[in-house]
Amino acid sequence: VTPDWIALDWGTTRLRAWAMSAGGEVLDQAASDAGMGTLGRDGYEPALLALIGGWLGDAPVDVVACGMAGAREGWAEAGYDAVPCRPAAGSPVRPETRDPRLRVHILPGLSQADPPDVMRGEEVQIAGYLAQNPRFDGVICLPGTHTKWAHVSAGEVVSFATAMTGDLFAALAGHTVLRHSLAGEGWSDAAFDEALGDGLARPERLAMRLFSIRAAGLLGAPDPGAARATASGLLIGAELAATKPYWLGQALAVVGADTLARLYARALNAQGATVHVARADELTRAGLFAAWQTLKGTP
Amino acid sequence: VTPDWIALDWGTTRLRAWAMSAGGEVLDQAASDAGMGTLGRDGYEPALLALIGGWLGDAPVDVVACGMAGAREGWAEAGYDAVPCRPAAGSPVRPETRDPRLRVHILPGLSQADPPDVMRGEEVQIAGYLAQNPRFDGVICLPGTHTKWAHVSAGEVVSFATAMTGDLFAALAGHTVLRHSLAGEGWSDAAFDEALGDGLARPERLAMRLFSIRAAGLLGAPDPGAARATASGLLIGAELAATKPYWLGQALAVVGADTLARLYARALNAQGATVHVARADELTRAGLFAAWQTLKGTP
Fold first, then answer.
1. Which contiguous run of DSSP H or E holds residue B275?
2. How far, in Å, CA of B73 to CA of B41, rounded?
3. What distance in Å separates residue A176's CA from the closest CA in chain B?
């Protein structure tokens, strides 16, 4: 294939690329482990060429990227656009390349002054959601290591909030007294639902309920499945208590089709919220396509 | 010295020993890094002899131990006494030793069925506090990696609760996006007090306020001292919200003279609670002394 342009999602651990047509269709795709976390500044261009060199012809091609490649420690710092603003619509940064065929554009993230918050990558999924649903007015939840909640209105992100719930869960499971209790892949929906309700109603008890998981394991038959579901429910329950102004009575979209996104949808449904679940990959490409069209001057 | 008996606090990371007189005075002391976490079952006796061999004469001597040496993966499992009960007053376990001069007694911990909870080591400090204050009726708070709150009445532990606040802080500082923000040793009392109040009033916002620390660092001048104090205040604030039934209007003792115990005392004072601060080491020895007297039949 010879794409009209190339879309990149360059995260901390993964680099994903799509060869795209001028109409926004996917012609080919590729991925590697050359995440921002593994690269020095001189490593980006070689990592990119190793992945998508086969897509390049003789002519220069636009490469539109989002994610951590635009962080301060990334390929080139792309900065942040301050909300309220249209997402993924600010001026990209253009890192220099040795290969003259690469015209790389890295999109800026979003920032919020008060309370202080940032996002980098998710704003492209929000832009993709708005490209598909231009009249959407409500809240978009993007579950992940750092789950984002974005108030969207009139095509702009009005405000947003981040909960580092997934990061906390991973640290608990890997580096605390709960590391044995939370090992394995087992799961119990009943334990999740119970803990979710308790986390919502009594979020202050988090550090105590978590220790109880360990104590229950010492005193009785340990059930790693119930333990994982309980810890997850407690954490997401507290997050839903904090984000109630974001989801209560709002039009609500959850981005993602993975286990975590399904958990958030289940939790929100249990609170009576109606959730529209959208596919993250598709939104990333739709958002990058919208940004490429803006770059080309073809809205 | 030739002690009348030997007191041991055998924790996960440290082994501490005191050569004691029959009247409870300290004749000598020693410590090593031979914590339970570093030892297989056959490693305990050699580690003990390496530390206190010089105190042994020809006659057998009682060695009274508390802590993780009595855990399932320790020297010999000492079990748990179920509350309500007198602390550190149950039957010790007697591990076999090759050296006939060692008569080792490892004290049991405490357990609670509902909500499930355990302690191992802190119950000896509680026993020590009760030995010094036999009429105490109130709550003893023992700050640590896993902070314990114990309701004490008529010489018994009636109920208790554990908050894994310190474990959470260490995991946040070591293994999450906050690891750079929380590096260093700086501190701000003002940031701690502000975050404490917010953590108490809005504990559900923990995972969002924590991410804000990182975002503030990215958007402005990072202040690791304020960041550490803020994270600590948020976590302890949530713990105080959960433990309000333990400290509100109760006679209250905080055990410890280290930085963490001072933080808890500061936080409780800010809530209008009057706190009696007690020295942990002294209480450990007093509790082991009481246990040794019981073993000897001399109350």
1. strand B275-278
2. 8
3. 6
Within A38-188, residue ranges assigned H as helices are 44-52, 122-132, 165-175
Between chains, do A177 and B163 touch, taking CB under 8 Å as contact?
no
Long-range contacts of B130-139 (CB under 8 A, 24+ apart): B130/B87, B130/B155, B131/B286, B131/B287, B131/B289, B131/B290, B132/B278, B132/B283, B132/B286, B136/B251, B136/B253, B137/B251, B138/B250, B138/B251, B138/B252, B138/B253, B139/B246, B139/B247, B139/B250, B139/B251, B139/B252, B139/B253
Q: What is the pLDDT of residues A82-111, one digit of tens each?
A: 999 999 999 999 999 999 999 999 999 999
Mean predicted confidence (pLDDT) in A279-296: 96
Asked whether the beta carbons of residue B215 and residue A113 sit closer than 8 angstroms, the reply is no
Mutation test of the interface with chain A: which of B80, B81, B167, choosing the one with the most A Cβ atoms within 10 A?
B167
pLDDT digits (tens, 9 = 90+) for B145-198: 999 999 999 999 999 999 999 999 999 999 999 999 999 888 999 999 999 999
Q: What is the pLDDT of residue B299?
A: 54
pTM of the model as a whole: 0.94
Rounded to a whole number, what is the distance in Å from the CA of B205 to chain A's nearest CA?
5
Mapping DSSP onto H, E and C, the string for B220-243 reads CCCCHHHHHHHHHHHHHHHHHHHC
Does pLDDT of A274 surpass 70? Answer: yes
Q: Does A215 contact B117 at a Cβ distance shorter than 8 Å?
A: yes
A118 contacts on B by Cβ (under 8 Å): 215, 218-219
pLDDT at A299 over 70: no
C-beta pairs of A137-140 under 8 Å, 24+ apart in sequence: A137/A251, A138/A250, A138/A251, A138/A252, A138/A253, A139/A246, A139/A247, A139/A250, A139/A251, A139/A252, A139/A253, A140/A252, A140/A253, A140/A254, A140/A255
A168–B172 CB contact, under 8 Å: yes
Rounded to the nearest angstrom, the minimum Cα separation between A235 and chain B is 8
Of B176, B212, B218, the CB nearest to A167: B176
Over residues A100-126, the mean pLDDT reads 97
* Nearest chain A residue to B244, by CA: A204
